[in-house]
Structure formats: structure tokens, C-alpha cells
Amino acid sequence: MRIGIVDADLIDKGTRHPNLALMKLSGWNKEVGNEVSLLERYEDIPAYDKVYIGKVFSFTRVPENLHIYHNIQCGGTGFYEDGGDNLPDDIEHHMPDYNLYNDYINKQIGKGIKREHYSDYLDYSIGFMTRGCFRRCSFCVNKKYDHAFRHAHVKEFLDETRPKIYLWDDNVLAYSKWKEVFEELIATGRPFQFRQGMDIRLMTEEKAEFISRVKYHGDFIFAFDHIEDKKQIEKNLRIWKKYCKKTTKLYVLVAYDSQDIRDIVNMMERIKILMKCGCIPYVMRYEAYKSSEFKGLYIQIARWCNQPRFYKKMSFRQFCEANQKYHKNPETICSTLQTLRAFEHDYPDIAAKYFDLRFEDLRML
């Protein structure tokens, strides 16, 4: 059979992450003798016996007329909130086809795009060691399971030619035998990273001491989604920072519960707490921010926080004023500074409380 693979996210706006499910489908089909191709156009679908279309993001655009094709099968969280049906076990636990994207990548590099842009495709073994999470947060797509459990061993997806590993585990620290997972990864001799972040609310002295010593790739990443968790998160970050000297980032979800002034205060208070703990926030804007009267402020706060070289050296006010210095027309006010001034005019007390905070002044740990 001729099998076509469509990565809808890649075709629409491009993505720096390969689609793991599609790579497993490709690997299994090649093993049973089918011919597999990555399609770059939907117009090529009729030429194939079977076409798998996957997308991760709900906002990824796909043709409205997909229903006219009778040889397609769609899957992923972009099509189904819970991801749709699971892959059959023999496919789910098949070695991913790490060569699926090679022709596409080689063409892009030939056009002048740097190889580093495709590092996730070329340098990493990718998989899940555990699946599931007991929290089942309303904003999370991974709500199929109510607990964390062992899903696979690293040998299932380890490519010996690739120098690094990254994992998509939902909540590895919720798994009772978390240490076995880390020990298995350590035994590969490769640096690894949990891309979904880890749950700082589950941090303990034992976990902090052990995990801080592993050969971890990049920054350690956790999450601070709810201001209601601030006491627990501050307490556990103190435990964590006692052992770990590497950069620690926390995802800060904003504009989800609301998009009003309460959410702005909520966001700024979490940023202040992370400053005190010597951590870096990464502001993640829920899609609804676009309809908020504070859309501009959400954008500028994210620009400031999500670039550590600015966040570590400047208050938000200093960041906005620095943008004005580089404004092309010195006789007008840049949008960044305009946003600060407009908010400060309407909410002077909030601006006074948060806009002059500096990471270097606040960090206590």
C-alpha cells in the first residue's frame, strides 16, 4: 500500500516539534512493507491508498473539504479534545520513524534555514515513559486518565545515533516509581528533558536532591497555573532551590479563568513570587486574551518575561522605556510604552505595586 502522512501543524504554520504519533504510524507501516511518504500538500491525498492526518493544535487550519476524501484518518488533540482513539498497542509501542521528516528538512535547509531550527527532529529520541495525571486540569488536553502509570521503557524509542532525549510525560512526579524512570534515563548516558514540565507541587526533599543531580538538558521547567497554590509552590521552590543551582522556569498560564483586572493582578503576583524565588516565569497566554481589554498588556508582559535577558536585568517599566529608545520615530510613543502608560493611568495602584519590581532586587534564594 501507498501510505501518506500529513502533519497538519507543519503544513499550516510550521512547528518545531515532530508529531510522535505520525512517526510511530510511519515506522509500523514501513515494517509491514508499506511505502510511506510525508505529504506537503493536501492535493496529493487522492494518490495514496491510506492517509493519516494528525494535528496537535486546535487552531491549526485544515481544508474544509476533508470529508470528500474516503482514504483519510484524522487524529490528535487538534481534532479531538482528548486526542481521539488511542493508537493500537503494536503501533503505540513501535519505534518512531525518525527519518519521516528528513526529505522535508533537507529541502528547508537547502533554502537557507539553519539546521538548529530542526534540532528537535534531528537530535532527540522522543517518547513517553509514563502517561496520565491525577489532577485533570480543565485547560489540559490530557484528561483520559485519573492517575499516572508506567507507559514504556526508554529502549522502546531510543535511537542510539541521537545524542539527547525528550519526554512528553503528563506528570512524571505523580508516578509512585518515579525514581525508576529517572534511573533508566540516566543509564542511557544522555541528557534528557521533560518538555511538559514537572509538577512542583509534588516536590519533596528526596526528589529535589535526586533530580537536581541528573544530566538534565536545558532548564528545569515546572508550572504555576493557579495563584491559590502560591504557599505550596513557594515552599516547594525553597526545597528545590536548596539543591538545584540551574535555571528554573515555571509556566504561568494567564487569561484562562478570566481576562479582567483580577487576572492581571493574579499574573503579576505570580511573577513577583517567582522573582523572590530566583525563578524565571514563562507567560503562556490562553487564546481568550485576544478578546480582553488588556490584550496589549498581556503581550508586553509576555515579551518581557519570556526573554530572560530582559527579565533578569530590567523591571517591566525599564523594559518599556528601553523599547522607546529603539523606536524609529522619537517624536511618537512606541506601543510598548503606550500600553504601560494607559494601564498606569487607569490603575495607578497596581502599576505602582508591580511595574518597578526587579529580579535582581527581589530574589531571596
Word description of this protein:
With 365 residues, the chain is an alpha/beta fold. Among the domains are: 1-111, Rossmann fold (3-Layer(aba) Sandwich), CATH 3.40.50; 247-365, no CATH class. Helices cover 35% and strands 14% of the residues. It contains 15 helices and 12 strands. The protein has helices at 8-12, 20-31, 89-92, 102-110, 119-122, 178-186, 205-211, 230-243, 261-276, 295-305, 308-311, 316-325, 335-346, 348-354, 359-362, and strands at 2-7, 35-38, 50-54, 72-75, 124-127, 130-131, 149-150, 164-167, 192-194, 220-223, 248-254, 280-285. The chain has a 4-stranded parallel beta sheet with strand order 2-1-3-4. Strands 5-8-9 form a 3-stranded parallel beta sheet. The chain has a 3-stranded parallel beta sheet with strand order 10-11-12. α13 (335-346) packs across α14. The chain is globular. It starts with a strand and ends with a helix. The mean pLDDT is 95.
